[in-house]
Amino acid sequence: MDRHLGEPHKFKREWSSVMRCVAVFVGINHASAKVDFANNIQLSLTLAALSIGLWWTFDRSRSGFGLGVGIAFLATLVSQFLVYNGVYQYTSPDFLYVRSWLPCIFFAGGITMGNIGRQLAMYECKVIAEKSHED
């Protein structure tokens, strides 16, 4: 996606960076479930700041931010649809049938999946380049 938008990725990509991004995402997800906050607004704002921090630390691209926002919007919409139709249910929804912090988790997941995808794409390009040198 970066090549199609004409936006090369600025950071050196290696698996250790991708794994750190995955670890931060798991930490954000764990915090949403285990850390007690005074209210849902405080939890949502904290997770939003952590999710944007994840993007800033591991991505900083417009395409990555757009991917995260797009995934957060679509996944939250699908979750609302599933809850509205009785397929799934939250114990205490506080934002249009779902939890208010859910888009933050989806955003962070989109950034994490984008980083994994970039690393796999670089690996694929490397394998293709090595095969062309062998021929």
Automatic annotation (TrEMBL):
Belongs to the INSIG family. It is found in: Endoplasmic reticulum membrane. Keywords: Cholesterol metabolism, Endoplasmic reticulum, Lipid metabolism, Lipid-binding, Membrane, Steroid metabolism, Sterol metabolism, Transmembrane, Transmembrane helix. One of its GO terms (biological process) is SREBP-SCAP complex retention in endoplasmic reticulum. It comes from Aythya fuligula (Tufted duck). GO terms for cellular component: SREBP-SCAP-Insig complex. The chain crosses the membrane at residues 41-58, 65-84, 96-116. Its main location: endoplasmic reticulum. The gene is INSIG2. This is Insulin-induced gene protein. One of its GO terms (molecular function) is lipid binding. The lineage of its organism: Eukaryota, Metazoa, Chordata, Craniata, Vertebrata.
